[in-house]
Design a protein that fits this description.
Layout lengths: L3 H64 L2 H4 L7 H18 L3 E5 L5 E4 L11 H7 L4 E7 L4 E11 L5 E10 H5 L8 E5 L5 E4 L8 E2 L5 E3 L6 E2 L1 E5 L2 E5 L9 E9 L4 E8 L1 H30 L1 H61 L1 H27 L3 H29 L7 E4 H11 L1 H6 L3 E4 L7 E4 L1 H18 L7 E7 L6 E7 L28 H11 L3 E6 L4 E7 L4 H6 L1
Parallel strand pairs: 16-18
Antiparallel strand pairs: 1-2, 1-5, 3-4, 4-5, 6-7, 6-14, 8-9, 9-10, 11-12, 12-13, 13-14, 15-17, 18-19, 19-21, 20-21
Length: 586
Amino acid sequence: MLRATPRFFLVIPFLLVSAMITGAVWQYGYRQALDDLAQRGKADLSLVVGGLVADLQRYRDQVVALADHPTLVALTGPAGPRARDRAERLLTAAADRTGAAALYYTDTGGNILAGTDAHGGAFTGTAVFKRAMDGALGTARADARAHGGRVFEFAAPTFASDGRVSGAVISVAAAEHMEFGWRGMSTAVFLVDGAGTVFLSNRSELLGWRKASDRPQLIPPGGKPVPLEQSKGGPHEIWHIDLGNYLPRQALRVAQDVPRIGMTGAALVDTAPARRLAALQAGAVAALFLFFGMLLLLAQERRRALAAANADLERRVAERTETLSRTNRALQREIGERQEAEAALRRAQAELVQAGKLNALGKMSAGISHELNQPLMAIRQFTSNAAAFLHRDAPDRAAENLARIDEMAHRMSRIIRNLRAFVRNENEPMGRVDIRAVVDAALDMMTERLRKDEITVDWTRPPHPVFVQGGEVRLGQVLVNLMTNAADAMRESPERRIAITVEHADGAPVRLSLRDTGPGIDEPDKIFDPFYTTKDVGGEGMGLGLSISYGLVQSFGGRITGSNTGSGAEFTIELDQWNDARESAA
């Protein structure tokens, strides 16, 4: 008992606090769920009201449109049976288009001159007819047994040439047809008139009911009043009532005024889902409290055992700490060695890339010498010509030769600039690169090789700059490698052609494709492997060019692929478009 008593004083307060918090959670969850149900009820009610207003507007528009129709206006004067037949056909067709129960045309005395059916009387004295005779659009609700009971009536006046009312078009719309689209809704929706009587509803058992003004009762048409219990769920009104199997016994009432038709819309949403959700939330909280309470109780019981185990664990930890310290020192040494190896690998890769550049440059040296020799010889010739023209007192011709000399100097400068850019060891970070300029520079460097091998280049140059994310020098080396490989592959081909295209679209990577007319690729899956080559052993290739190109493109965050086209090989480079927002953020 000495040990049970303290536990009792701990458990009882814990259970009381848990019960209080669980009840609060139930109340909060119930009100939140009622808010959601209210939103759903308002949405359903707005949908019903909006559809009803649109339907009524369609009938209003119809009577207004028919009021001045010549076929109907002709009935106010001397008209024979044919005119009446034409008018009835017109009204019947119009009623079929809108679904109206009936359409009539009357004179100023309320007598029906034409209609879709036999009305059996006149409209004299009706509210809509009086409104139309006053020259305005009339709208009213009525109980017309000839048209199925509850109806909406609309009347529009016809004006004679002197401005006086000469007749009226009257439309009768059955309320039941408007309710048809609501029948499948799970929410009970009804509209009451100014007297508080239900005129429209998707639950037929509610039609004709009204709420007593002095007592909490609902009064059915000609029946015994039914007691109504009302309560509050926060700001919401809850009805407790038994109105049959198709209406909830406990419902959230949502109301909305519809002044355009002089009625008030209401919806009854079943609160059972809110109660279930609140019960689930409260049950989950209670289960959590009980669970954690059990954990606390077990923790209290196991404290001494854990204290003993903790002492033993500390002893073992001290023993293991020494072992882990030795292992950690060994791992640190291994990590240092691996970091040094990675740094050496990066240096070797950079040296390999630079060696590839120099190797390509050596292969192109003869062509570059030819490219530089031609402008030099032309400069010598234009210099002699300019001196001769100056001696002959022909400064205009001399100026032309000097302009040609300047053009040749610019050409040599461009070739040397491209060579310097290609040879230098680029260590700068990636930036914005115009892919057109990179292709142009690579073609300048390969001009003599392409001319010597009689290779035609189809360079579809975009009209505007295409900026990608990369390194200008490294991307130029990739293109020179691809062009050199293509030229080597097409030595025995009857047709030697390289096609270069650029595809770019907003939000998509830029695709640079280089296609040749060589024999194609023997093993496309291995072309980017180091030391893989199809050239003769001891020849020009070591199998590193495409492997280096693969690594360079990947360093830009891009992708390079090679495939066969059936008439040669095609290499495609995909690079991310340059984002100006990224540059601004940087």
